[in-house]
Amino acid sequence: MLETKNISFQYPNSEKIVFPDLSLEKGKTLMICGESGSGKTTFLQLLAGLRKPSSGSVFIDKQDISSFSQSKLDQFRGKHIGIVYQQSYFIQSISILDNLLVSPYSEGNSKAQSVAKRLKIDGLLHRYAHQISVGQQQRASIARSVMNQPKLILADEPTSALDDANCKYVLELLQEEARLNEAALIIVTHDNRLKSEIDNTVELNPILNTLS
Amino acid sequence: MIGKIAWKNILNKPLNSLLCVSLLLFGVAIISLLMVIQNQLDQKFKRDLKNIDLVIGAKGSPLQLVLSSVYHVDSPTGNINLAEAEKIMNSPMVKKAIPLAYGDSYEGYRILGTTIDYIDKYDAKLKEGRRFEKPMEATIGQLVASKTGLKVGDTFVGTHGEAEGGHVHEEHKYSVVGILENTNTVLDQLVLTNVESVWSVHDANHSEHNHEEEHDHEDHSHEDGHDHTHEDHDHDHDEVAKENRDITAVLLKFKTKMAALNMPRIVNEQTNMQAVIPALEINRLIYLVGVGATTVNYIAAGIMFMACFSIFFALFSRLKERKHELALMRSVGYKPTSLFGLLIYEGFLLASIGYIFGWILSRIALYFINKQAESDFNLIFEYNFIQNELWLLLITILVGIVAALLPAINAMKIDISEILSKK
Predict the structure, then answer these.
(1) Which domain does B119 fall in, by range?
(2) Assign residue A120 a region: left if phi > 0, alpha if psi is -120 to 50, beta otherwise?
(3) Dihedral angle at the C-alpha atoms of B219, B224, B227, B230, nearest 10 degrees?
(4) B24 with B120, same domain?
(5) Quick one: B344 and B266 in the same domain?
(6) Do A74 and B334 touch (CB under 8 A)?
(7) B11 vs A104: CB contact, 8 Å cut-off?
(8) Which has the least CB within 10 A, A85, A151, A203, B180?
(9) How crowded is the C-beta side of B237, counted as CA atoms within 13 Å?
């Protein structure tokens, strides 16, 4: 499902970051952890096609997305990848429901209703982002990430702002949604509380990785 | 979805949006108002001028003669002798000659002594009753009827002069015999009667001051209400004083264009009257008014130009606070060109809103202008959408799109990974 080979990334005027090779089957969860500055978010953006690697390839469903053009990449991401950002981003002027349906590849209203019900935000769909709590926003973000029936869900620090109880709850929601949508789930975090919950873990070590 | 987001972005901050298009709104309102007024004045001038090649009247300002005899908005230049005028009216080159005699009014509406030809000239149809035939019978224009409430069978007396509150010819009652349908010409605001009525009112008036005896006689014949006596009396006068009869002006239609061009020279050289080609005078007037209108148009164009900038700045400054939204849209699958389209569409919507509200404002202004113009010139502008406003719409939309162009290009170029990784 997901495979990376020898990917590295170099910011302008900065050292090259080399990332470990990954391989993940559908329906499985992988945790990528590391300290701040270890390139976690960069790694996630490379997997999501938000950035292109300096070298190496990212294969999703055996397609090398690193070779795609910008607009093809946008299209591929819209169709097959769901992203939960560290911070919840919403379009402020439209309702939560419209935010769930915003993607041109979203599956439509009935899916939005059922996902919202599972995530217990079905009563908030006609509100606006600024009218709901941070926790509710995060659940809405998770809901939006699966609206396109993704093959891969990427979550960036989904639990960093949450207390223990909610941390576990959000993780369960993510895994549940990944399972129901038959998607692979990758969580990028430095939250040690998650380590005990997930077996499949890759550690990013800034010192090791930048050695080359 | 792009359309919905664009709409919601504008509606979500209605006051901001309105503020952002306020300049555009005023620009559109001014230009729209000018276009409507100019368009309708042109049309009205042309309609009223139908079938009039030449106007003959007393010497004086040519423009005043045209305004007073064709448009009935100014006072006459003076009177001309009927016998002298008839020499020209009977010329073989003349196809139709319509005499005009006026000097009285009813509630501000001019009482015009003329012939049936005047009604035919405007192809006016009767709404009610019939055309005037005998002296002291009046056929009134549609506007006069609706504003004064006069109905067929009513009687009224004229006031000397154009202003209300002048001398009232109480002893001479006109009776309304017909009401004309709306013609959108000057006819609507006239009380039409024959020339003899005007003479009889003024002869009597004249007598009133000079011959007490004749005044009594006049009074008598009226109290009796015998039309016959009255006509006799009129006839008497005709016999006695035809040489001294005055009218105010003559409208002429010639058989050939050539004749229309030659006649003014003959009249101006050989008589103490003046002949004016009204089309020339009006073209000159429109040109002079047009110079002023052009200046205002330039100002309005300047406002539109500023409006373009105000929309540009509004969209541009909002880009900064919206970059997360735009990045998010990219990350869920919108192409850069879709974001470009979104911004252009917002520019288009803002411009359209500015146009719609500007148009409405222009009509509100027209309403107040109408209130004034109606009492001053008996002039009412219509509120219709005119063709030129379609061009204005296209220009307005173009302004919106041009204003959105640079912000849209910037939206297309945003670095989404950079924006989405900021904490």
Answers:
(1) 54-202+248-276
(2) left
(3) -30
(4) no
(5) no
(6) yes
(7) no
(8) A203
(9) 22
Q: Name the band, by pLDDT with cuts 50, 70 and 90, for residue B406.
A: very high
Indicate the number of domains in chain B: 2
Cβ of B331 under 8 Å from any chain A Cβ? Answer: yes
CATH label of the domain that carries residue A122: 3.40.50.300
Mean pLDDT of B10-32: 87
Give CA–CA dist B138/B251, Å, rounded.
Answer: 20
- Residue B175 phi/psi, 5-degree rounding, is -120, 140
Structure tokens at B80: 């001309």
H or E segment and range at residue B58: strand B54-58
Q: What is the pLDDT of residue B169?
A: 73
* Least confident stretch, A30-39, B166-175, B235-244, B270-279: B235-244
Measured in whole angstroms, how far is the alpha carbon of residue B385 from the centre of its chain? 15
The answer to whether B324 contacts chain A (CB < 8 Å) is yes
Instruction: Please report the pLDDT score of residue B233 as a whole number.
Output: 45
Per-residue pLDDT of B217-258, as tens digits, reads 444 444 444 444 444 444 444 444 556 788 999 999 988 888
Average pLDDT over residues B110-133: 89
Question: Which residues, in sequence order, are CB contacts of A129 under 8 Å at separation 6+?
Answer: A88, A90, A91, A92, A96, A99, A137, A140
Considering only CB atoms, which chain A residues are within 8 Å of B423?
86-87
Question: Does the pLDDT of residue A13 top 90, yes or no?
Answer: no
Tell me the helix, strand and coil percentages in chain B, rounded to 5.
Answer: 65, 15, 20
% residues pLDDT > 90 (chain A): 25
In chain A, whose CA is at the least distance from the CA of B422? A87
Do B72 and B21 lie in a common domain?
A: no
Q: What's the CA gap between B227 and B248, in Å, rounded?
A: 26
φ, ψ dihedrals at A77, nearest 5°? -60, -45
B387 CA: distance to closest CA in chain A (Å): 36
Residue ranges of chain A whose CB lies within 8 Å of a chain B CB: 41-42, 45, 48, 50-51, 70-71, 74-75, 77-79, 83, 85-87, 89-94, 98, 101-106, 144, 148
State what percent of residues in chain B have pLDDT above 70: 87
B168 strand-pairing partners: B159
Whole-number average pLDDT of chain B: 83
From the list A74, A90, A92, the residue facing B335 with the nearest CB is: A74
Q: Enumerate the residues of chain A whose CB falls inside 8 A of the CB of residue B325.
A: 89-92
- Given the DSSP bridges, would you call strands A152-156 and A201-203 parallel, antiparallel or unpaired? unpaired
Neighbours of A157 (CB within 10 A): 19
Q: Looking at residue B191, what is its pLDDT?
A: 92
Nearest-CA distance A42 → chain B (Å): 8
Element housing B174 (H / E): strand B168-180
The tokens describing B304, both together, are 């539109």
Structure tokens at B139: 């056929």
Residue B138, in any domain of the structure: yes
Average pLDDT over residues B276-286: 87
Residues B301 and B415 both lie in one domain: yes
Instruction: Compute the distance between CA of residue B378 and CA of residue B374 in angstroms, rounded to an integer.
Output: 4
Domain assignment present for B357:
yes
Return the minimum-mean-pLDDT range out of A175-179, B157-161, B270-274. B157-161
